[in-house]
Model the fold of this input.
Amino acid sequence: MGQGATARSQTSRSLSTCVSFPFALSLLVSLVSPAGGAEPASRYFYDEKGQVIREEIDRTGSGRIDTWVTYQDGHPILQAVDMNKDGKPDIWHYLTADGQVERTKKDSNGDGKPDIWITYRQGSPIKAEQDLDFDGRADRFIFYEKGKAVRAEESLKRDGKITLWSFYDDAGMLIRDEEDTKGIGRPTRFSYYQEGKLLRREEDTTGSGRIDRWSYYDKDERLMRREADRKRTGRPDVWAYYENGQIVKQEEDALGQSRPNVAYFFQAATLSRREEDTRGVGRPDLIDWYENNKPVKRQQDTRRQGKMDVVTYFREGTIQRQEVDTKYEGRYDLVRFFEHGRLIREEYDTNGDGRPDVWASYNEKGEKVLQEEDTDYTGRAQVRFRFAGGKVVNKELVGERRTDSPPRLLIPKSP
Done:
């Protein structure tokens, strides 16, 4: 189902920082409190009628002008401020006749061109625009009510198309964002936050208009659980669990019973075991073990009676050996050997003494060509059968007993 540690996007993080920016700008309008407590040094310029038209101010007492004020009819209409101390203005405040901020522009990267624009009403911000890639076009728009940011829109691809909508509480904290991850003009991913941290996420992964994936996060914004509706039934059929942001278990409802019948287990985010209840009776009858994402062992309850009766071993993903409990007594009495994934030999303990008494060999086509039997259980073959085309073509007496018996069947077939 995919993995992830902290799932909140960097875009959301940087947006929350930008939201508080207009408030800082509004404070710059008042120039009565210079930095460092130094007295501001001002120089006024007048027109031929004696009215002030411009003011230059050294707010810090450094000997350098850092603020330029333009007047009209004796009232300031524009304040330009040098905040980065390069001798050039990087913030411009446009003022109303009563001295309140009406608009603000800011050059945040020092290229001489504004990339943040803020509109005010009665001294409070109502809208901010930000050019995030410095191409002269706004990519993010922040909307305010009563001086507080309540909503934002952003073009994540910087192409002018809005694909992220964010919403804030009265304290300016992000509480929800909606993202168009498919480029279809409407949100397909909905993220919910608590105290500014990601808490839950809902996604429409196909763009069909229906939520089909749900993700839940811990206090550190690490994924701890994910549910998915893969079959588009309207309810989850996959459940994944995470610890410290890494997947540890995944369950699936492969039978459509509204409960899991397949489980995957992970160590260090790597698959280590898979269990499946193929009939949906409440207990697994197939277990696969993995190392380095490759199967190394499989256990099967082929009779589905609660006991594993077949164990298969793999190397580099290729079958090597198989053990079978043919009598379903909890003892593996038939062993099969493979080479390059092909059955080459079988050994069968028919009397349960722990030693094989039937040996069978197979050719490259998987056909049995030879079977030897220890009919008196002495550890040596007494009868040898040769096969061609699946039929006995020759019988050779090695010992003296059971010379008239047919070859014993090696059962069951390979599962």
Q: What stands out?
A: Residues 3-35 have pLDDT under 50 and may be disordered. Helices lie at 10-19, 21-27.
